[in-house]
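Sample intake — catalase
Collected from: Alloacidobacterium dinghuense
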Amino acid sequence: MANEVRKTMTTGAGRPVGDNQNSLTAGPRGPVVFQDFLLFEKMAHFNRERIPERVVHAKGSGAYGHFVCTNPDMFKWTTARLFEKVGNITPLFIRFSTVGGEKGSADSERDPRGFAVKFYTEEGNWDMVGNNTPIFFIRDPLKFGDFIHTQKRDPQTNLKSPTMMWDFFSLSPESLHQVTILFSDRGTPNGYRHMNGYSSHTFSLINAENELFYVKWHFKTRQGIKNLTREEADAMRGKDPDYAQRDLFEAVKNGDFPRWHVCMQVMPEADAETYHINPFDLTKVWPHSDYPLVEVGEMVLDRNPENYFAEVEQAAFEPRNIVPGMGYSPDKMLQGRLISYPDAHRHRLGVNYDALPINKPDSPVATYHRDGAMRFDGNGGSSPNYEPNSFSGPTQDPRYIERPNPITGTVARHNHGDDSDYYTQAGNLFRLMKTDEKERLISNISDSLSQVPRHIQERQLCHFFRADPAYGESVAKAIGISIDELVTAK
């Protein structure tokens, strides 16, 4: 402490502060005067310290780490340079989160978990923005706002509403697969270190021959899968609502660095035309028997953020951030997220969000973006702000033109109900569960479903029954309804 250099406090404009303990007043007991620049600056900044929280994924935890490529054959699928050779190391930042809860909600809520990774590659940022489940509740972005509203608060009571939730689920049978995951043990992970991550969406890779392969990304935890029972999760909400945050931070701090195997499923482009499952349907998985996992590398988390707000709260992930050698897919939900994520960031953080230190690429940035709120760099200096120009500004490079993808069909609001196999994969998942896992699933569902009106219960029970009769019968029995009468009536 004796050698500590004490810096003089200043205002935001650099004006030294002589007294930070007393407001400027008219006499010792008089009113505060309008010219107290320090008081008004401090109050104004304090009033604006809280940026709007994320509409979804509001509460999160983050850590730095790196990815190491371990697959020598990635060239068969992509030209992305982070996969160029075994041993390539790419720095990254990850943000885990709950989805539906507010910023002050508990980490142990029954909820999907966000799993977003920002890879700072030499070709720009790659954001792998996924969840801890390989699927989702809906498959059309037009319904996303409606779905999220059912996970938030009732507009009249401002309380969470099982009726809203089950009403939506029962009227949206494509949600059944994800509902089964949500109410299983996987709905309450034991912290962030003991869960997998998934891209959920289908993306694509492109090799040097311009061949395209559809891929799904999987991050398999090396800590082992651990979940909380409903009773344990309920107890943890009162005991330590920040449990997952604390567990992650302490593990990294103590050198117990979390690790994940990074894998992918690969589908040749031609297969997508004939595969019996729509490979772009976010409510369905690709069976591993058809497309087994290919190991790509390892992700390690080894450094905690220094400032939560600057690094975790201001982190902005968006699935449109890919690098050369990667592409998107016709996944409708993905197509919607390509637009909605950057739009949300501009609203929450401002138009210059991608220049914030946590979001800025390690590779050079050369754009004609200028001005906008909170522009905090040189704003392009005296260089031209238009293109084309005659003054050596950055220019296009045809080597990076996107690979053309043929499309066919009519432009219309096509009814996705025409693909109405909502039940096979949900039933398969139920049948894969052990007896005790099924018992906890039924208990978790019945605890929630028992609180909603009878007509919604009946509608949802029919979906469970269609997935597997034992599934429907067990839930019906748990909430005191005769499934035989219900199925006969339907």
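Post-analysis note: Residues 332-349 form the longest helix (18 residues).
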